[in-house]
Design a protein that fits this description.
With 486 residues, the protein is mainly β. It has one helix spanning 440-451; strands spanning 15-16, 37-39, 54-63, 74-80, 85-90, 94-99, 103-104, 106-110, 129-134, 148-155, 173-181, 196-203, 213-215, 229-233, 255-259, 291-294, 299-304, 311-315, 321-326, 338-339, 342-346, 349-355, 366-369, 382-388, 399-404, 410-414, 427-433, 436-438, 462-465, 471-474, 480-485. It is globular, with a radius of gyration of 21 Å.
């Protein structure tokens, strides 16, 4: 995420950008916006602080151990059907598992172990063990995906050549897609050999490195989407996509990939490219067949709606807007021509006079501004996502849940009557704590005091899904996994 240039919480009036201002942040200016209306607050009405609030109960389900005295940086949690376990990764480099009854998480594999020769680069806020996914055939003995899971990892050693690179002369580090194969998927710890490298991305900058890995949980054997791995590939970093990668179909960066990890028709022969990907056979040898959708900045979270198959994406914005979007085959999500529903001008803001004017772009279903008073001052980054289709917590049924990383705010919109951008229809979810409604940030700060730590100034919220559609709340500052309950 990038810290906004202007962190004032007051409402801003639109400022008209004269032609002479076209030199401001010239590396990030969109030519189509040079004569537009510069604003960093296109939605001045804000998310409603009290109207439409849903209050839910929660329990502290599990604890993830510290890593070398530092709180676990929990990033992703998934249920693994058939093993009665949930798995959660720590960006420091460890994959843990938790029983359905909770308790203390147990180590499954430490990617940092010298045996694997994968030196995790976990420096800064955005590098480390990014994500993981279990093949849908992980527990099916005799199936091609038996025992296989995948990890997305930033590494220190960039000595090898990459499969995808950029024109940037300086490289920060590499991001690897690795395949691990367990001999016994039900074992309490990983018992297989070294991982197989499927893909290597040469990162031009130290931020916006990767995103989430996920298999479509709704696809069953025989479906075209079964066993295909979705990958968020961020725009390479810095700010404003200075290399103009997200709209470039010859570049891997700023994309959602969809690949067959068990295939072999890729350029490096280590994975497959599905024939129905939009650019797999478009007649242009320079476009990348791996691309499922493009025009993303920092695609942190993907989630499917179990009722209708809608695929939602939480894509972190620049300094003005955070967006929740629907992703479809071949969709252009707009970055860096657009930030949310508005024409992107630069770090200073967007063109308030140019909203959703390009019919070829898929615009967000919901978005909120960085100046919204419910957020942590000067910081915002969208996260989530969980589409709740269970009846155990009636007030959440049929709601898309997403959140804001720093503040720990949890938001909801109607999954069956999706809004069309902006903050209209966004409500808050607050957590009941002995009858008092609190945000996750408040709970984390209280937990920090119990732990003898200084209270954290942010949360770094993520959401996970339990075995019966439960909503699990993760953070990077108190090691506690919380579950929403009736």
């Amino acid at each position: 995420m990038d810290v906004p240039v202007d962190t004032s919480r007051r409402r801003r009036n639109l400022v008209f950008l004269v032609a002479a201002c076209s030199l401001v942040a010239s590396a990030f200016v969109s030519p189509a916006s040079a004569a537009g209306q510069l604003t960093n607050d296109p939605y001045p009405d804000d998310v409603r602080q009290s109207e439409g609030v849903i209050r839910v109960n929660y329990v502290e389900l599990a604890e993830v151990p510290d890593f070398e005295g530092r709180p676990a940086r929990m990033m992703h949690l998934v249920d693994e059907p058939g093993t009665d376990r949930m798995f959660v990764n720590d960006m420091w480099g460890v994959l843990h598992w938790i029983g359905y009854d909770g308790g203390t998480a147990r180590q499954y594999v430490d990617v940092n172990d010298p045996e694997w020769e994968v030196p995790v680069e976990a420096g800064g806020n955005e590098r480390g063990f990014q994500s993981f996914a279990f093949h849908p055939q992980f527990g099916q003995q005799g199936a091609p995906g038996y025992g296989k899971f995948y990890a997305y990892v930033d590494v220190i050693d960039p000595s090898q050549n990459g499969d995808f690179t950029t024109s940037n002369e300086v490289h920060s580090h590499h991001t690897l897609l690795l395949e691990w194969t367990a001999r016994n998927p039900e074992a309490g710890a990983y018992d297989g050999g070294p991982p197989r490298e499927l893909m290597r991305l040469v990162q031009p900058f130290g931020n916006h490195n990767a995103g989430q890995l996920a298999f479509n949980p709704l696809a069953s054997p025989g479906d075209p989407d079964f066993g295909l791995l979705y990958m968020g590939v961020a725009d390479g970093g810095s700010g404003g996509d200075p290399l103009n990668l997200a709209q470039d179909l010859t570049s891997a960066f700023g994309k959602i990939f969809r690949i067959d990890p068990l295939g072999s028709n890729s350029a490096n022969g280590e994975y497959g490219i599905p024939s129905d990907n939009p650019f797999a056979d478009d007649g242009n040898p320079n476009t990348l067949g791996e691309i499922y959708a493009y025009g993303v900045r920092n695609p942190q979270r993907l989630a499917w709606d179990p009722a209708n198959g809608n695929l939602f994406l939480a894509d972190i914005g620049q300094n003005t807007l955070e967006e929740l979007s629907l992703v479809t085959l071949g969709a252009n999500l707009g970055w860096n021509d657009w930030e949310g529903s508005y024409r992107f001008i630069g770090r200073e803001g967007v063109d308030g006079g140019d909203r959703r004017s390009d019919p070829s772009v898929t615009y967000p279903v919901a978005e909120y501004g960085h100046t919204d008073p419910v957020l942590v001052e000067g910081d915002a980054a969208v996260s989530g996502i969980h589409v709740y289709r269970d009846d155990a917590i009636p007030q959440l049924e049929g709601r898309v849940l997403f959140g804001d990383n720093p503040s720990g705010e949890i938001f909801h919109i109607d999954a069956d009557d999706l809004p069309s951008g902006g903050e209209e229809g966004i409500g808050r979810v607050l957590l009941n704590d002995d009858g008092e409604a609190k945000t996750l940030l408040q709970l984390v700060r209280e937990k920090n005091r119990e732990q003898g730590r200084d209270p954290s100034d942010n949360v770094d919220l993520r959401m996970g899904s339990g075995p019966e559609g439960q909503v699990l709340l993760l953070n990077k500052f108190d090691g506690t996994i919380r579950m929403l309950v009736p």
